[in-house]
Sequence to fold (472 residues):
Amino acid sequence: MAHEYDLVVLGGGTAGYVAAIKASQLGLKTAIVEKSRLGGTCLHKGCIPTKSMLKSAEVANTIRNADDYGIESFIPSISMEKIQARKDKVVDRMHGGINQLMKKNKIDVFDGYGRILGPSIFSPMAGTIAVEDPEDDEAESEILINQNVLIATGSFAKELPFLPFDGNIVLSSDDMMTLDTVPARMAVVGGGVIGLEFASLLADLGSEVTVMEAGGQIIPMEDKDIAGQLKKSLEEKGIEFITGISLSEDSVQTSGSDATFEINGESRSFDKVLVSIGRAPNVDDIGLPNTKIERENGFIITDEHYQTKDKNIYAVGDAVGNLQLAHVATKEAIIAVEHMADRKPYLLDYKTVPRCIYTSPETASLGYTEKELKDAAIDYRTHKIPLAAIGKAVIAGDQKGFGKLIVDPETKDILGVSIIGPGATELINEAALAKFLDASSLELGMSVHAHPSIGEVLMELGLDADGIAIHV
Fold:
C-alpha cells in the first residue's frame, strides 16, 4: 500500500520523534518508521534508564556514608530487581508520553524496518521508503512516497572481535539494562563516558570494579585536570584503573561462568565484563547504496544543514557522528527540518554544547580543552576555583571538586568551561547559555547568583578572570 508524506523520518529515537513534532508544527505531513519502540536508545537503553539506575546507586551510597551527615550509617540491601523495576517504570512513563505526542501532532507511526529505494515508478528521485514487517518476510511492504527523508537511525555498541557480546559474561551497555544481580567482580573495558558511568554505578552498589583503558587518560577527549580528579574520586570508591593496556585474543579467555584477563603477568578473573569502546552508526542496511549519499568512517556525510548529496535526504544524530549526544541529535534534527521547510535555522556551534558525565561525582564541560587550544596554537588563560570555597558545595559534601574557566586573554571571551562536583550537569547549562549569548567572563562574574548555591563557582570563575574574585 502506498502513502504520501512531506517528510518520512527513519528512526523514532530522540532525534526522530523531535524532528517529526517540529515538522508537524511547520505544517508538514509527517510519518516515522521505527522497528522497535519510540524513544530509541536514549529512552530505552541509554540516557534515561542509566540515570534512573545511577540515582538508585546514589541513594545506596548516601545511606552507606550517612555518618558524614550526622545520621547513623548502615550497609543497604541491594535489590537489582527493584532497581530495574523502578527504571522500567520511569521508561514506560516517558514512552507513554511520546506516544501521546505522536497523536497530538497527528504523526503517523509505521512499525517496521524502513529502507530507502532508488529512483522508481514512485519517484524520479531516491528517497521513497519501503517499510518491511520484521516479523513477516512474506508481508507486502508499505510504500511511503515523500518530498524529504530524515535519517535518524542512531547507533549500536561496538564489540571487540576477540571478546564478542554474549549477553551473559561479556555485556554491552544494552545488556546492562537487564542486569539482574550486582556482580561481585566487574571488569569495564573502556574508560569513556559510558564505561565510567556504569563503573561508578556498580561501585556504589557494592561491586569490585576494574576499568581498563587503552589510552593513558580516562575520558581522553576531556580536560586533563577533570580526568585526573575524576579518576582520583572514583579510586576513592574502590574502583581500580589500569591505563595503557593493550588487550588481545591471547590475553582474554571466557567461560560460561567468568572471564580471565592476563594483566601485567597476572591472571585476573571477573564475573562480568562490560565492553564499552564506543558506538557505530546504524546505517548499513537502510538502502544507502540506492542513493548518492557518501560516508566517511561509516558516518553519513552532510553539510551544515544536515543535507546529504541527495538534497531531499537529510541525516542527523549518531548516524552523522558529530557529538553522539541526545541533545545534539535533537538540535541537528530541528535545524534539518527547518531547512527543508525553507526556514533559516540558527546553525549549531558544537563548542556551545554541554558534555556531561553522570558519574559520582558528576562532570560537565563545554567548549575547548587546553590540549585543543595548544594544538591549535590559540592563546588562552585558565582559572580554577575549588568547590571548597563554595558554601553550598561543602554542605553537599564535596570539597575536592572544582570549576575551571578558559578565556581569551585579550577579549575575555569564554573558550571553555569544566566542572566536577555535585550538580555539575545542571550548572553547565548556565555556562552554555553564557557561551551561546557570547557573554564575556566578566559578564558571567557580574551576574547575581543566589547564596548559598553551588552555581556561585561560575560567578567566582568569571570574577577571577578579571582578577577580582572574592572568595579565593
In short: The first strand starts at residue 2 and ends at 10.
